[in-house]
């Protein structure tokens, strides 16, 4: 399938939205930021070139003033709390978790509070009170206690659960995946697969599901396949009247005003 024809299903779906006078809301989250890197420069360059806001999930324990200084000259970038140290406490037989039930809840919550204060101090103009659990996993018992720490929302992956203890602003499209043999680091997924998922998410919204579509990227892990998809999708999206990119803070305000 040629590069152009890969995008035809998305273009056809967006044409349906435009004809119906509907606009799909999108937002963009990128995980695992720590410090200035060439990959971060590339990410911020795409955000700027396409005038697309991005929420950078920063690992508090491993970051410092260098990242704050790098972001100081950018626009459209917000900072969320990506756990504390992104350390896995699960057993080898379990899926990776930092915020699971493997430690005392008080210890986990204490680290999250420290992470909240750290990023609020380092990024006062960009900080949003959002928790992004590492690996998109958190023990259910911790969630109701997040508002007492100052968190106003949480972002994981997949359809947001109705009646959650804290507002959810989730991601739904992960451009990274495992290799066919399951070995080695994650790689950029085939573009046609991701486009198919995008169309499916849009079809859900067209039928009335009131949830923004969240794009998930990981700048430090991207190969060229992932970078090329990100750039191509931003180009497609910014050229269409049926897509509106919104900052996470605005989406949170919209959500709180309707609850």
TrEMBL record:
Gene3D superfamilies: Glycoside hydrolase/deacetylase (3.20.20.370). It comes from the Bacteria. InterPro entries: CE4_u4-like, Glyco_hydro/deAcase_b/a-brl. GO terms for biological process: carbohydrate metabolic process. This is Polysaccharide deacetylase.
